[in-house]
């Protein structure tokens, strides 16, 4: 699950923003939300706002922040816009309060996708090695499972206090304090609440980070997880004067030419299996490591490939397998309708959301697709 680039130093723009193992996005517009349309939701994500079911935990977390010496803010490996935007926003805010903060994530080398290069606060970033062995207080953002801490796993668990701030329904719950709200469309929404509780007003730097997080994880406000409260937050963020048009162009509408070539090859390789998933249909493809090397494209750049592959109306499930140089295949899948890809991915050692999930295996392509197919359709 390392997600290292094909060649460090040749990072180019990702076409989108989803985390490489697909753990960070909620279902697309045609999926049914278990939460309903969200139209009846009050402003503020259910559960994490004032008086919500996390009220006492929020108060404990704010108290921990108040008494901590230094604070380490970490996000998941191969960070996407929500992970990095959340950690950096918290870092900027706490620095503004005069706190000693570091922001880090457990990759070596750490690679910031070109699509996120505009995020402010990156001067707060330190390599995982510079995080103390036994930190005082660690806040981890958008980390759906311990494994996503990467090289920072041991240090995070050695912390006096480890706070988990996340929105993944699959999060098993770890750390000493947990603010895990699956109804939040992005971790950045929870960071907005954290800033409110810390008394930090939104400015353009904070808004740029939070907007990037929310826009990333809602697919630019398209996914079913988007609620009136999401738009209300977006309104407050835009009111700071940020250039959301430039942010969006960088996040979604910028890529290298090499990306187009890798995309073309992946689409040429795509297979449609109408009988799979009990007749609901499967579309899948894979990206050999050699393609990335040939066109100097990083794995971060092809995160959005799944969003193209899932377009065919004929198939309810889409799967992209991305090959790492060490032979690891990392699968990203999406589903609509009643199909639960999180359960299927769990059978391959992964996880995620019902309609967006992922896994990583050391196996060849045919056997991996066969296992995925069988996990989705045990009777088939
Ligand atoms: Mn997220």
Task: Explain what this protein looks like in three dimensions.
The protein is an alpha/beta fold and 380 residues long. It folds into 2 domains: 19-251, inorganic pyrophosphatase (n-terminal core); 257-376, Diaminopimelate Epimerase, Chain A, domain 1. 33% of the residues lie in helices and 16% in strands. It contains 13 helices and 11 strands. It is globular and about 55 Å long. Mean pLDDT is 87; it is low at 1-46. It binds manganese (II) ion. Manganese (II) ion binds at residues 24, 82, 142, 167, 186-187, 217.
Taking Cα atoms only, what radius of gyration do you get, to the nearest Å? 20 Å
Helix fraction bin: 25-40%
Strand order of the largest sheet: 6-7-8-9-11-10
Return the CATH class of the largest domain: Alpha Beta
CATH architecture of the largest domain: Alpha-Beta Complex
Average pLDDT: 87
Estimate what percentage of residues fall within beta strands: 15-25%
The count of β-strands is: 11
Q: Output the number of helix runs.
A: 13
Please trace the helix and strand order, writing H or E for each element.
Answer: HEHEEHEEHHHHHEHEHHEEHEEH
């Amino acid at each position: 699950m390392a997600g290292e680039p094909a060649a460090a130093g040749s990072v180019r723009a990702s076409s989108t923003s989803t985390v490489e193992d697909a753990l960070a996005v909620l279902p697309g517009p045609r999926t049914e939300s278990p939460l309903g349309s969200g139209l009846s939701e009050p402003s503020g994500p259910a559960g994490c706002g004032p008086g919500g079911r996390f009220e006492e935990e929020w108060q404990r977390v704010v108290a921990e922040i108040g008494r901590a010496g230094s604070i380490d803010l970490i996000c998941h490996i191969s960070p996407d816009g929500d992970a990095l935007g959340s950690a950096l926003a918290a870092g900027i805010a706490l620095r503004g309060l005069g706190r000693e903060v570091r922001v880090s994530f457990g990759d070596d080398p750490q690679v910031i996708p070109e699509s996120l290069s505009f995020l402010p606060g990156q001067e707060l970033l330190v390599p995982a090695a510079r995080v103390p062995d036994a930190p005082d207080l660690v806040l981890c953002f958008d980390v759906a499972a311990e494994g996503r801490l990467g090289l920072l796993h041991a240090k995070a668990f050695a912390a006096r206090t480890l706070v988990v701030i996340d929105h993944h329904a699959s999060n098993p719950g770890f750390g000493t304090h947990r603010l895990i709200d699956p109804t939040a469309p992005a971790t950045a929404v929870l960071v907005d609440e954290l800033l409110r509780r810390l008394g930090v007003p939104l400015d353009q730097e904070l808004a740029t980070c939070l907007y990037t997080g929310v826009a990333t994880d809602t697919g630019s406000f398209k996914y079913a997880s988007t609620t009136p409260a999401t738009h209300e937050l977006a309104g407050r963020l835009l009111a700071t004067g940020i250039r959301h048009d430039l942010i969006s162009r960088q996040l979604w509408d910028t890529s290298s030419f090499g990306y187009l070539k890798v995309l073309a090859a992946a689409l040429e390789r795509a297979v449609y299996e109408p009988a799979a998933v009990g007749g609901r249909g499967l579309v899948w493809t894979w990206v050999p490591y050699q393609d990335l090397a040939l066109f100097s494209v990083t794995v971060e750049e092809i995160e959005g490939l799944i969003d193209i592959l899932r377009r065919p109306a004929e198939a309810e499930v889409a799967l992209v397998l991305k090959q790492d140089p060490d032979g690891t295949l990392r699968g990203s899948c999406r589903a609509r309708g009643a199909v639960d890809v999180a359960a299927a991915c769990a059978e391959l050692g992964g996880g995620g959301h019902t309609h967006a999930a992922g896994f990583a295996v050391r196996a060849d392509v045919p056997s991996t697709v066969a296992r995925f197919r069988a996990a989705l359709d045990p009777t088939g």
